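Supplementary Methods S3. Input chains for the assembly prediction are listed below.
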Amino acid sequence: MKTVFKRPHALKDKHMHYCPGCTHGIVHRLIAEVIDELGIEGKTIGVASVGCSYNNYEYFNCDMAQAAHGRAPAVATGIKRVNPGNVVFTYQGDGDLASIGTAEIVHAAMRGEKITTIFINNAIYGMTSGQMAPTTLINQVTTTSPFGRKPELHGYPLKVSEMLATIEGAVFVERVSTHDIKNILNAKKAIKKAFQVQMANLGFSIVEVLSSCPTNWGMNPVKALAWIKENMIPYYPIGNLKGKDLEV
Amino acid sequence: MGKKLLMKGNEVIAEAALRAGCKCYFGYPITPQTEIAHYFAKKMPEYGGTFIQAESEVAAINMVYGAASAGARVMTSSSSPGISLKQEGISYIAGAELPAVIVNIVRCGPGLGGILPAQGDYFQAVKGGGHGDYKMVVLAPSSVQELYELTVEAFNIADKYRIACMIMGDGILGQMMETVEFKDKEEIISADKSWALTGTKMEREQNVITSIYIDPEVLESHNLKLQRKYKLIEENENRVEIFNCEEADVIITAFGTVARIIKNVIKMAEKEGIKIGLIRPITLWPFPNEAFEKYATVPKAFLSVELNAGQMVEDVRLAINGKNKVFFHGRMGGMIPTQNEILDKVKEILKG
Amino acid sequence: MTGHEEIIIAGFGGQGILSAGRILAYAGMLEGKNVSWLPSYGPEMRGGTANCHVIISDEPIGSPILNTATTLIVMNAPSLDKFEKTVVPGGKVIIDSSLVERKPSRDDIDIYQIPATMLASEMGNLTFANIILLGKFIKQTGIISKENFAIALEHILPEKKHYLIPEEIKALEVGMNYCE
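Predicted structure tokens for the full assembly:
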């Protein structure tokens, strides 16, 4: 009998706590598959952040640290500088990375830290129950923008990847999506490349993953995936912003 | 012992750290402690370690968290406003039980305050400046030689108990030069760091460094474990200098630079037939209660002299526990009490 | 040579006030004495004034902060105004009289007025003024030998200025031998 589907070794055999239709689980799996394929589980160290994925060390098999809100890139910097031979990644949401942690992510990129950041952009705060994020779209209703995000009140959504791509030390920047199979496969390719860029000591790498939050968006999982495609991608175009042709 | 060198307090801290095997320093510039960073920036490459001028004190303390997670001996330093910014990270370091050394060369507050010497951060350091029930060991050197010895000691204590250890100095101690004699080799304890994040190498279970425990029963037992550790440290690690206390008319209590002024006051007082003793806590936490208990009824009164509005005096009163009168004399804003001023205060107390 | 000296050196920033103090402290250490050096930092520094407190003693040093001085060395008028009262009766004031016209008003202290900046200028290097004043200090107190002063210079001066040391020693001698 041929095995067509199995759990990657880098992922624990554990039921995840994420809501139905949430794409965190998919991204965890993609990271784990990449770790398996690159054969780096034994030298990978992850840094969990604050948000729904605060305890993703319960799901990954590699060594992991849990960081204060927004500080994962600083924690990862400390780890990587002590153990330059390890592969170090941070896993951060949009509240963590694009709001409270802007200084840390920008400066980790500026220093060209040899770390990889997986940035989950679902345009909303999940764990604290649906507040507006810096990445919340115009007119998107959240618990702290009950009348929709208004540019005159809240400004425009932050395009993190575009911003980071202007930084010399950020050598690989790509935005991907999880709304269908083709894009999920592309997301995996990008994550793999980001890790390889780190392993080749080329600099800082980040993959922004457009993700869904059916619970806080107030829609079913299928509609949520469609919402990514119809609303998020037009504002946050998917594709490589930097480092597509890097030899790794 | 090696030969005598004349060095600035701040530089001695950095040199001592390097000798103690500190492999990472993360900091952000702030007066009056910046020479520490300058020294590390210059010397760290020789030791094959990491020096990073971080984007903020917040980032620096989180880099400390990361490097300590990875098992390295690591230090950050700052001065009061910067230490306030580090409090979040210190609380996480306490929760995750990471060894780290944090230097506070205290300046005046509140707010931006001023850059002259002060001791207004005593409460913040010993009562837990960040959130939650935690402690860190706080060492208060009063000479450049002691800065060296206690910095080395701080790394050992941090490793031994997996705890943050603070060196609390002030602008005088950081800026002054004094002779220092380094040992040929430091005594470095070997601590078990099998908990560190180094990668599993597929040979062991995953290591996790975290401070979050969502289950209340688990979190309470984690807290109880921390409290047991703090109790152990209280029993084993308190340090104090007792000087001239037998038959003292008044015992003055002071830490850091102020204790040096008191030694001058003691000499002045002797000439006038007044006997003053000194109890100088070297560890501010754990507080050396036993020393106060021992001498509680010896003098006519205690006097705590501090560069603040009265902070350590509260711990002195708790230690004396009503067995004697405890007076306070303090200056703020970078003003330093003169010897005459302190002697006058002692005379006033003795007059009753 | 035995003794106990509490020295305040004060003047403008750039006159070598702080390094003069460091040289004394280092030389004092070479004499086998306890030493401390405490620079002014902070608001005092603004407006260009600088001072340092140096203690050289056979006894262990208590406070490095001086409320009184056995010797005051001043290189500008505001410093004389500020610190004259700190000198203990019987203490010394050494003044760069090229820069400070006023004579101290007290009669219970020994006063040495040396046109150090002018003498340094005659030697072709204004930065020697502080060394000339220190020359007077070591002559009058005897707490530091010329030999140890020379060794201290080597340690305190940055290497790129070591070529100046023979000249600095000459400046020291000018100060030591100066008679009013």
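Residues 241-351 of chain B form a domain with the Rossmann fold fold (CATH 3.40.50.920). The two ends of chain B are 48 Å apart (CA to CA).
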